[in-house]
Amino acid sequence: MSTGQPLAGKRILVTRARHQAGWLAEALEAHGAEVLLLPTIEIVPPETYSPLDEALERISGFDWLIVTSANGAASLADRMEFLRIPAQRFHPLQVAAIGLATAGALERMGLKVSAMADEYVAEAVVRLLSQRVAGKHVLLVRAAVARDVIPEQLRKCGADLHVVEAYRTVIPFDSVEQVRALFGEGKPLPDAITFTSSSTVNNFFALLAAAKVELPKELRAVSIGPVTTRTLRQHHWEPFRQAVQYDIAGLVDACKQLGND
């Protein structure tokens, strides 16, 4: 095997949403992997945009804006355009983001990010802001179903925190036939399957159930971080590797360990 191709000959299944799979797939392919795509989540609008729109209309009343994902940033940008709210109205705010991808998306919208959590976990945001939000009005933009670590902990720190839903993640049931095709009897298994969030894990198992397919015992999971790993363990699946750095680059590095077989 070429030292420049640590994943040559390996087949890796990517479970990210269809519109987000490209970066991970390209990085794995750059290291020689054959990438298979199985979207386990689909990003759709919230049940109603009213809470988000109302918060944006009075954005000047907030001191902090926290955005937890690039999907949240994209939805925020859409609603700003729809409501004709310019980025300049956000300039008095302090803006916090989880991860480089979210920060980059916000910067491209014209919002200056003043605090960024390097780790893609809610606890990193709490550590970052716990000493900075007491007595402050804070707007948290996130998915419809999300862990409550950030609002609970920042409220304990004295923040007046307002939570709005920017999008929902749902199961793309057109992936059911793909599951049957990938894991049907006699089918060659991928060398590993990557998971980038708890949603991708839970939805993967929902797709297995819908397809009436059992989890192949030999299949190896690679997790992006501790929250995702915890969800895998709740499904009685110990990951083959967990990323040391909780982002896509770290996940790719963890996959490279497959090349040591």
Would you spell out the secondary-structure blueprint of this structure?
Elements: E1 11-14, H1 21-30, E2 34-37, E3 42-44, H2 50-57, E4 64-67, H3 70-83, E5 94-98, H4 99-108, E6 115-117, H5 122-129, E7 137-143, H6 149-156, E8 160-170, H7 176-183, E9 192-195, H8 198-211, E10 221-223, H9 226-234, E11 241-242, H10 248-255
Parallel strand pairs: 1-2, 1-9, 4-5, 4-7, 5-6, 7-8, 9-10, 10-11
Antiparallel strand pairs: 3-8
Helix content: 25-40%
Name the structural class: alpha/beta
Topology pattern, helix = H, strand = E: EHEEHEHEHEHEHEHEHEHEH
By CATH, the topology of the largest domain is Rossmann fold
Q: Would you tell me the overall average pLDDT?
A: 91
Side by side, the strands of the main sheet go 3-8-7-4-5-6
CATH C-level of the largest domain: Alpha Beta
Pick out the low-confidence regions: none
Quote the distance from N terminus to C terminus.
12 Å
Shape: elongated
Number of strands: 11
**What is the multimeric organization of the chains shown?**
single chain
Gyration radius, in Å: 20 Å
Largest sheet features:
6 strands, mixed
SS element count, helices: 10
The overall number of domains is: 2
